[in-house]
Amino acid sequence: MTRNKSIALGAGLAIVLLLLVAAGIYASPYWSVHQMKEAARERDVDALLARVDQSALRQSVRLSLGFKLSEALHDAQAESGKAQAEGARAQAAAQVDPLTEALTSPPLLIAMLIEGRPSRALGGIGRLPASGDADLGEWEAQLRYVDSATVQVRSSQAPQAGGFILRRSGLIDWKLSGLLLPGQ
């Protein structure tokens, strides 16, 4: 083999290797979602929690719920007056933490992943779907930034069904770190 052929072969192998690495990095959020869905279907809480950043998930849900409640209270204040709205604000603030804990609990995470979206699982809190239940739409993952991806189910039945936020946790590993609540 001549020297030129060796260089061309080496360059070709390097390009193929680079393309394989890039494809692996691009496909990694899809693979992580697949692993989360499989853990949920098998009711493997340990495998699922290994793919969840609990503190980031709780913080994301707490902020989302707080924002949604503030928005609703602002509307209520405009309709009913300041005195009633202040009482409602205090009552709603007391409910954010218990709701956050419920939404980030393993049984509800399993239900959300099996159903494919937070809104569907939230409609039946306390009811875990049967293990044979089918997903209700096409999963779509989108890289938002280099270290963040959103995953949503696209369905004509539920166009604003919410979704999941993943954060990179290494080169090809991703962890569930937030929920896109319906209407976000």
Radius of gyration based on Cα positions: 21 Å
Overall mean pLDDT stands at 77
Largest sheet: 4 strands, antiparallel
**Count of helical stretches:** 6
Uncertain segments: 124-136
Query: Given the C-alpha coordinates, what overall shape results?
Result: elongated
Description:
This protein is an alpha+beta fold and 184 residues long. Helices cover 59% and strands 15% of the residues. The protein is built from 6 helices and 4 strands. The protein has helices spanning 3-41, 45-49, 54-80, 82-103, 106-115, 118-122; strands at residues 138-145, 148-154, 163-168, 174-180. A hairpin with an 8-residue loop joins strand 2 (148-154) and strand 3. Helix 1 packs across helix 5 (106-115) and helix 3 (54-80) packs antiparallel against helix 4 (82-103). The longest helix is centred in the first third of the chain and has 39 residues, at 3-41. It is elongated, with a radius of gyration of 21 Å. The model is unreliable at 124-136 (pLDDT under 50).
Mind sketching the topology for me?
Elements: H1 3-41, H2 45-49, H3 54-80, H4 82-103, H5 106-115, H6 118-122, E1 138-145, E2 148-154, E3 163-168, E4 174-180
Helix pairs in contact: 1-5, 3-4
